[in-house]
Amino acid sequence: MIQNKKSIKELVKNPDWQKVRISLLGQWKKKSLWCCQQLTKYLGSISSTSDDKLRIVMNYLTGTAFRIGLISYPCVKRLRKLISLEMKKRKSKNKDSK
What we know:
Blueprint: H1 8-11, H2 15-24, H3 32-43, H4 51-61, H5 64-67, H6 74-96
């Protein structure tokens, strides 16, 4: 399912994602849990959300501010781990179905 994928540059242009991303600007320091909730709400159920949404949010959560530790909260680590596990699960499922 993750084959024939669009570039991340294309994916992040999605208007729904842009609304979420903009709503998070400047909010992490004061409302980290709220920010994680917004990302979770955007994703919906991780096990049934689209590959595109998983890639968009994972791309966001591995961006510079997160990588260098400016934004570092337990909810971020938890969400990143859940997404990573789901992506690995799908990738493995894809290999098995070939």
